[in-house]
Amino acid sequence: MTDKQILLLPGPTPVPPQVALAMARPAINHRGPEFKALWEEVTEGLKDVFQTRSEVVILTASGTGGMEAAVANLISPGEKVLAVTVGAFGERFIQICRAFGVETEVMAFPYGQAADPRAIARRLEADTEHKIKAILVQHNETSTGVLNDIQAISRARGSHPALLIVDSISGLVAADLPMDAWHIDVVIAGSQKAFMLPPGLTMLAVSDRAWQAAEKCTNHRFYLDIKKARNSGLKGQTPFTPAVPLLYGLQESLRLLKTETLAGSFARHALMRDMVRAGVRALGLKLLADDTVASPAVTAICVPEGMKPADIIAPLREKFGVVVAGGQGDVKDRVFRIGHLGYVSFSDILAGLAALENVLIDAGVPVTRGAAVAAAGAILSEGMPAGVETLAS
Ligand SMILES: Cc1ncc(COP(=O)(O)O)c(C=O)c1O
Prior knowledge:
Layout: E1 6-7, H1 17-23, H2 33-50, E2 55-60, H3 63-74, E3 80-85, H4 88-99, E4 103-108, H5 117-126, E5 132-138, E6 140-141, E7 146-147, H6 150-157, E8 163-167, E9 186-190, E10 201-206, H7 208-216, H8 226-233, H9 244-260, H10 262-282, E11 298-302, H11 309-320, E12 322-323, E13 335-339, H12 346-362, H13 371-383
Parallel strand pairs: 1-12, 3-4, 3-5, 5-8, 8-9
Antiparallel strand pairs: 2-10, 6-7, 9-10, 11-13
Helix pairs in contact: 1-9, 2-9, 3-4, 5-6, 10-12, 10-13, 11-12, 12-13
Bound molecules: pyridoxal-5'-phosphate.
Residues 11, 62-64, 89, 138, 140, 142, 167, 169-170, 190, 199 line the site of pyridoxal-5'-phosphate.
């Protein structure tokens, strides 16, 4: 059997059958009343997920489109931003800023580490003329499996007026990010991550302060114009033809998340993270990120001495149908990544670890058979908070 796969990727993630069925509904007129009702339900539901009362826009684009929309709609050419990067997606934000003529000051931290809020505070304190118009940062850096402390970064801003723009494409729903409570100005999400949908939608929640910046912004945009999207959205429409099946899927995934609750989702993701970390450590492998900054969505694992990521990734897929991701950026040749976000169950994690163990044994790596599943199973037995309803249960 070669067609049955367990996707342990940091996106795209598996799609629940209810969501897949919802996406198979007959076509509707996207300028008609059925669409308006769908639109109103999903935009209201998204506000709960972003934990905001601000307006949310949905664009038909992958997550990078959401990052581009944030830059093109909020920062004018020649204006300055502080781009805080801890990996490959931070570097992508820098590329986008430069492509849009934005003066980009880079604050880079090594792959595997989180951003230091104190360094951000120091930089902003030194910016007495308030030249820095925005801070750009990842919530969850997918290339390294590091979760930045966004609350601390927001506090580090102090009274500096810079907008805080957070790429939470792989973080939202997997880790807590209360936008309003943490005074975040823009949160960007993507459909193919913890939302359990196929790729194709990006969602941006935009604070009042950020909407004011959008009024003044002179940068170029057309398709990704968030003001156009908001104004059409208020009438229950989109400026351009929307990806209606994905919106049906979103409606269903929001209903599933409502049943699980956000707290339940965060607990499930944290538990999957701990299972993976315990299991991998029991095999003697090293993790790129420290426990204190470990992502609940994805874990980057260092390959054993003398092996390449492909030596693990290929047999996992070919022999076991377990699909994991390679490395990116600076650590491309040093790590492989196990995704544990979205519609992933505890048994998927156990199966993935068992397969990894076999691959290592086949490659001659000295590991104790059964060690990974035993370690992860122990975490699972003690870990699930009582009474938490999860999608996996
Ligand atoms: C943190 C982060 N930012 C941005 C992106 C880019 O999103 P997309 O590939 O959907 O354009 C990803 C995708 O993996 C991501 O994980």
